[in-house]
Specification:
By secondary structure, this protein is an all-alpha fold. It has a domain at 9-33 and 53-176: Biosynthetic peptidoglycan transglycosylase-like (Penicillin binding protein transpeptidase fold). Helices cover 68% and strands 0% of the residues. The protein contains 12 helices and no strands. The protein has helices at 2-36, 39-47, 60-70, 82-95, 105-114, 121-137, 140-150, 160-168, 177-185, 190-193, 199-215, 221-232. Helix 3 runs parallel beside helix 9 (177-185), helix 5 (105-114) crosses helix 6 and helix 5 crosses helix 7. The longest helix has 35 residues, at 2-36. The N and C termini lie far apart (73 Å).
Length: 234
């Protein structure tokens, strides 16, 4: 029994040591990125871009769709969402795969403006540290605004304005509810959900977005069906 206890203690210590190393390395990556350019300067750089769109120039329906599908508790948590992380960890343990990351919109913004899209433990740790830094410098509306202005929408469109112009030939504020829900789903996997590449998959993803909006009570099931029906009748 004593030998078993010692083995368990050794395993726990090894795990803690490994976690400590990964955390330190991730922190180092975060600090290096922050030393190259501060959050304040990075935000100013992004906001100065020609195609940058302010949050008041975006449809409320589109913003609600983004929150519903990406991070429905966005306005209720800080840089990270412990509930989402716990759910993601459990899902990954059950599947023995890195299927879910539990990333908040703030974490995704950190990834968009500072790091690569590569899924590694080190990048994830760096992303978490950067998310806290972003939340210290920006309010929630600004974070959401920055997120849709730095997300990739496929077809070479690197912000919401480019995507609205390119896919729908209109300004973001003029997007319909159908178009808004379509666009909100694309950044999850742009090469898969770009409507010009895979229209059927894009519509499936759009349906997921609308389902989330129903689930979190942004719209009713009847309103969802009307959005889809109205477009089909055009």
């Amino acid at each position: 029994m004593k030998i078993l206890k010692r083995i368990i203690i050794c395993i726990i210590l090894i795990i803690l040591f490994a976690v400590g190393i990964v955390t330190y390395k991730g922190y180092t990556i975060y600090k290096q990125a922050l030393n190259e350019i501060s959050v304040k300067d990075k935000v100013a750089e992004i906001q100065s871009q020609e195609n940058y769109t302010k949050i008041e120039d975006l449809p409320e329906f589109y913003l609600n769709a983004v929150i519903a599908v990406e991070d429905h508790r966005f306005y209720d948590h800080g840089a990270i969402d412990i509930i989402s992380i716990g759910r993601a960890v459990w899902t990954n343990i059950k599947s023995f795969e890195l299927r879910e990351g539990g990333s908040t919109i703030t974490q995704q913004l950190a990834k968009n403006i500072y790091f690569t899209q590569e899924k590694t433990a080190l990048r994830k740790i760096a992303e978490i540290f950067m998310a806290f830094e972003i939340e210290k410098n920006c309010d929630k509306d600004e974070i959401l605004e920055l997120y849709v202005n730095t997300s990739y929408f496929g077809d070479g469109y690197y912000c919401v304005k480019e995507a609205a112009n390119g896919y729908f030939d209109k300004e973001p504020i003029d997007m319909t509810e159908y178009e808004s829900s379509m666009l909100a789903g694309i950044p999850n996997a742009p090469s898969v959900y770009a409507p010009t590449k895979n229209p059927d998959l894009a519509k499936q993803r759009q349906n997921q977005v609308l389902d989330r909006m129903v689930k979190y009570e942004y719209i009713t099931e009847e309103e969802k069906q009307n959005i889809l029906k109205t477009e089909e009748q055009k």
